[in-house]
Design goal:
The chain is α/β, with parallel strands linked by helices. Helices cover 36% and strands 17% of the residues. The chain has an eight-stranded mixed sheet with strand order 1-2-4-3-5-6-9-10, sandwiched between helices. It has a two-stranded antiparallel ribbon with strand order 7-8.
Amino acid sequence: MNRDQRFNHCQLICLQGLLSFAMVCGLVHSVHAQPATSGNSKAPNAFQWVNPIPAGQQHPRLKHATFRSPSLGTDVGYCIYLPAQYNEKKSAEKRFPVVYYLHGGRPGSETKSIGLVKLIDEHISSGEVEPMIYVFVNGGPVSHYNMPDRPDAQGEDVFVKELIPHIDATYRTIARREGRGIEGFSQGGRGTTRIMFKHPELFVSASPGGGGYATEKKISENDGYESENLRFAPGDNVWDLSRKYAKNQKPPLNILVHVGTKCFNYENNLEFMASLEELKIPFERLIVADAPHSAKIIYEKQGLEIMTFHARNFSQSN
């Protein structure tokens, strides 16, 4: 072994020693290490129609339930918040308005947005806003959309045609448009906007939040394509649907668009609101200062205003 070979050999031994020391101290991990998995583990984003409430998110006025979907032939889960007044003896015959809350994420689940329940309950229990029921919807494999040629991914129809009738038949709701509202954030904001324009006969009050209207515009301008591998039915987007609704506007919708100034969808929400103004579709806006893309932070800051908006529309309609 010549001098250069001996030098390189010493360097290799030193590097191996330093690497071993670092691994023992936890400074680096072996490139061969793999996370432990179990045979019954599921993928992080695996979709399920039924998702029980996690232990850490339980609330005394929130429960999980299911109904049998006629179209899917399977059980579908939902979470429902019943205000304290619902179970009072003096209110045994009273019926309550309902807000249907559409989760964000894709896919999501009926438990995705239940972190809002604590805030919702505080405002209702304190008497700051009239009592109302909140139903947290499972939006399906592609959140709140009906997917062409995918019978298992008709999230909109499962909600509109199956869940709403089930809720009205099972709970003491005001089972008509005047007692029904819709709200959602992010993907749920997109879903709320599309569904309110498609079904204004179902909702008197609608509050889409933080929706990705730039993505919806891309869908509108590209024959339904959101991406190369994801295509919706042409026309099934908020831009085309708002233009269609603007021609008639019956029955009239009460709309509150809400978004935070630090939300990554802030600018495209402003663009969409400008479009509503051009179309002469009346709406209210709630711009939450310094709020990021977070329904929880928006509710912590100004959730009472959103709830009051729904309550005001319910009371004016009854």
